[in-house]
Amino acid sequence: xxxxxxxxxxxxxxxxxxxxxxxxxxxxxxxxxxxxxxxxxxxxxxxxxxxxxxxxxxxxxxxxxxxxxxxxxxxxxxxxxxxxxxxxxxxxxxxxxxxxxxxxxxxxxxxxxxxxxxxxxxxxxxxxxxxxxxxxxxxxxxxxxxxxxxxxxxxxxxxxxxxxxxxxxxxxxxxxxxx
Length: 179
Known about the structure:
- The chain folds into 2 domains: 1-50, Arc Repressor Mutant, subunit A (Orthogonal Bundle); 52-175.
- It is globular.
- By secondary structure, the protein is an all-alpha fold.
- The protein is 68% helix and 0% strand.
- Residues 31-50 bind DNA.
- Residues 8-68 form the HTH tetR-type domain.
- InterPro entries: Homeodomain-like_sf, HTH-type_Tx_Regulator, HTH_TetR, TetR_C_Firmicutes.
- This is Transcription regulator.
């Protein structure tokens, strides 16, 4: 396993341990010792890579979205509707962790992660700019998009994910006039 693969595996392990612990107790009641023991990683690993437990969530969400997008065919040609379709599929694939984070009040961490990931994908040419207007260049646009996407995806999951990811992707593109 390469150093990057090892790093990613440890991140996945500590995130999964955090989710498991969050299903049993409050966020503020989780100790670093308990978390690292559950994850099978050292406390040194935690302190070297994270400042807070929120950092674990943020780093994992960013890694998860980027890995998922990289696996898609024609990733450089993704329009907003298609990107959202795939994002909704990703959150559906991770419904337990998403709903656990919602129950724990961690929506803002998910939003922050989405902003970071969205900016990374744009900067690296992995997605096309969605709007021909100047609003996409506004400094608040990524925050606006992230809030809309995360809140919509969490509401969709809470309601039982009745609509398909494709439908939700088109719906968001329509809401944001990006279709």
